[in-house]
Automatic annotation (TrEMBL):
Gene name per UniProt: rps12
GO terms assigned for molecular function: structural constituent of ribosome
Domain of life where this protein originates: Eukaryota
One annotated GO biological process: translation
GO cellular component, one term: ribosome
Cross-referenced PANTHER family: 40S RIBOSOMAL PROTEIN S12
Keyword set includes Ribosomal protein: yes
Keywords: Ribonucleoprotein, Ribosomal protein
Stated family: Belongs to the eukaryotic ribosomal protein eS12 family.
Limits of the Ribosomal protein eL8/eL30/eS12/Gadd45 domain: 20-114
Keyword Ribosomal protein: yes
Pfam families: Ribosomal_L7Ae
Descriptive protein name: 40S ribosomal protein S12
InterPro entries tied to this protein: Ribosomal_eL30-like_sf, Ribosomal_eL8/eL30/eS12/Gad45, Ribosomal_eS12
Length: 139
């Protein structure tokens, strides 16, 4: 039996997956109006250095688009994360129609997003930002 006033140990959580954590961070950023979507918004946020990090879809088929986003991130030292598909990024960024059962009914494509606001107390945000720092050190 625990003594009065003692704190129970925190439950051990399983290791986080970057894509799951990123999904949760993007959803919270969207709610806080801290998510930029679309080339124009993303490029403006990167150029103004308002971005904490940027996410680019690996299957973006426009070389100019990819090169612009990568160049702006590199020029302003903004971490660049990647996700496998545009549809996955669109779902994470809230550009999808989700049915009552939780199935995605319709989704657009989204090639990049910028996160400007995160919840500093959120463990998912901390995990994603740590991954961003690792990426920044690797370059």
């Amino acid at each position: 039996m625990a003594e009065e006033g003692s704190v129970a140990p925190a439950p051990v959580s399983e290791p986080m997956d970057l894509m799951d954590a990123l999904h949760k961070v993007l959803k919270k950023a969207l709610v806080k109006d801290g998510l930029c979507r679309g080339l124009r918004e993303v490029a403006k946020a990167l150029d103004r250095r308002d971005a904490l990090f940027c996410v680019l879809a690996e299957d973006c088929d426009h070389d100019g688009y990819r090169n612009l986003i990568r160049a702006l991130c590199k020029e302003h030292n903004i971490p660049l994360l990647s996700v496998p598909t545009q549809k996955e990024l669109a779902t994470m960024a809230g550009i999808a129609t989700v049915g009552d059962s939780g199935n995605v009914l319709r989704t657009a494509r989204c090639s990049s997003v910028v996160v400007k606001v995160i919840d500093k107390d959120d463990p998912n945000a901390t995990f994603v930002m740590n991954e961003c720092q690792k990426i920044g050190k690797a370059e």
